[in-house]
Specification:
Elements: H1 3-63, E1 68-75, E2 81-85, E3 90-93, E4 109-112, E5 119-123, H2 129-133, E6 135-137, H3 151-166, H4 168-174, E7 181-185, H5 192-202, E8 206-211, H6 212-215, H7 222-236, E9 240-245, H8 248-251, H9 260-277, E10 285-291, H10 299-302, E11 307-312, H11 318-328, H12 340-346, H13 352-368, H14 376-386, H15 394-401
Parallel strand pairs: 7-10, 7-11, 8-9, 9-10
Antiparallel strand pairs: 1-2, 1-4, 2-3, 4-5, 6-8
The structure holds adenosine-5'-triphosphate.
């Protein structure tokens, strides 16, 4: 082999080595990438396995039979307890190890296993059933100044409710009995609830509001029980004002007792009448009813000694609307172009609730325009939106705004 051949061979060998080296590096890089992918897939697998475990546990939990609610009647020395389930008789049952024995007392509300009735958990005390359906405000904070217009109506309500609570001697001296209950009748959103709350505030009474339709229950006797419990609560928290909204849903005239549902409403009404007959007009509990449909009320409700003072709440007139606008814009940042006179003039037929909605809506328009002062144009748009009786278009709004 001569020199030239030798050199050629060397070159070929070194080229081969370089190629192999390149290939090795490529393989190494590939291996690194695959290693990374493998790690990612392994992590993903672990994550998914965890998710499957959680979902399986959730599925198991959902498949569990429901538990029964019961009350502990007695704790036995053997560690067992006597419970009464909502289904009827008393049982002697075991207690699950997870239950903290110290929290188990006579009268505790507990959940019971469906099969063995073993105590599984101690539940928080039940909410008073009437409290769950009624709104109870210990200290309402509505003052007479929050009511626009309605001066005469408010005076009548105060005479009938506030005086017997605060100054019963006035009635005693004159020798007459104050009305037992007052009925406020008038269109929706005209301030009936507001007036009742204001009287409760003034007399430091607890305000208990219940909606008539909520007293009408599905099960026989439930409505009457709610009425009874509501008055019990009122006596417990006296002085108190019981405000029954939508009185017509329990107190509508008896037509013919066609369905068992009607009979149930009737039973609820009888209970209400019995409660009203049973208490002292100069006592610490006062009843205010409200309805938009006085025409359909059963006469039995309106007899002396029951809702014997009826106050009609009219929709606000011009002057009252002026007042209501002033009340609801008290905290608003108003531009000087806002005219209550114009607003009151263009909102004929609006209720107090409508006026409140108009004020809120005007504020929303102001925010949308990124301003802080509420202008008349915002109010006009709001009036248009809420009661829609203005001949007023977006274009004009734009012009006026410009
Ligand atoms: P409903 O028959 O629908 O229960 P209501 O007559 O009880 O209606 P409220 O709940 O007292 O009406 O009124 C709703 C809201 O409207 C109140 O919270 C209050 O902001 C406003 N409002 C209504 N009337 C007046 C009024 N005369 N003065 C001030 N605000 C009022």
């Amino acid at each position: 082999m001569d020199d030239e051949q030798m050199n050629h061979l060397k070159k070929e060998i070194s080229e081969k080595i370089a190629m192999l080296e390149e290939e090795r590096i490529r393989y190494l890089e590939d291996a690194k990438r695959v290693e990374g992918e493998k790690r990612y897939v392994e992590n993903e697998l672990i994550r998914l396995q965890k998710e499957v475990r959680i979902l399986k546990a959730e599925l198991e939990r959902l498949k569990q039979p429901p538990m029964i609610i019961g009350t502990v009647r007695d704790l036995l020395a053997s560690g067992k307890v006597i419970v009464r389930s909502t289904t009827g008789p008393d049982f002697i049952v075991d207690v699950s190890q997870d239950v903290d024995r110290r929290s188990l007392k006579v009268g505790s509300r507990v959940s019971l296993n469906k099969q063995s009735l073993a105590v599984m958990e101690v539940l928080p005390p039940s909410i008073d059933p009437i409290v769950s359906g009624a709104e109870v405000i210990e200290k309402p904070s509505v003052s007479y100044d929050d009511i626009g217009g309605l001066r005469d109506e408010l005076r009548e309500l105060r005479e009938a409710v506030e005086d017997p609570l605060m100054r019963p001697e006035v009635y005693k001296k004159v020798g007459i009995e104050p009305p037992k209950a007052v009925l406020l009748e008038g269109p929706p959103g005209t301030g009936k609830t507001l007036m009742a709350k204001a009287v409760a505030t003034q007399t430091n009474a607890t305000f208990i509001r219940v909606v008539g339709s909520e007293l009408v229950q599905k099960y026989i006797g439930e409505g009457a029980r709610l009425v009874r419990e509501m008055f019990e609560l009122a006596r417990e928290k006296s002085p108190s004002i019981v405000f029954i909204d939508e009185l017509d849903s329990v107190g509508a005239k008896r037509i013919d007792m066609a369905t068992s549902g009607d009979r149930e409403v009737q039973r609820t009404l009888m209970q209400l009448l019995a409660e009203m007959d049973g208490f002292n007009p100069l006592g610490d509990v006062k009843i205010i009813g409200a309805t938009n449909r006085p025409d359909i009320l059963d006469e039995a409700l309106l007899r002396p000694g029951r809702f014997d003072r009826i106050i009609t709440i009219p929709p606000p007139d011009y002057g009252a609307r002026l007042d209501i606008f002033a009340i609801h814009t008290k905290k608003m940042n108003l531009h000087k172009d806002v005219s209550f006179e114009e607003l009151a003039a263009i909102t004929d037929g609006a209720s107090g609730a409508d006026i409140r909605a108009i004020c809120t809506e005007a504020g929303m328009y102001t925010i949308r325009e990124k301003r802080v002062k509420v202008k008349m144009v915002d109010f006009r748009r709001a009036v248009d939106k809420v009661i829609g009786n203005m001949d007023y278009t977006e274009k004009e709004a734009g012009l006026m705004f410009g």
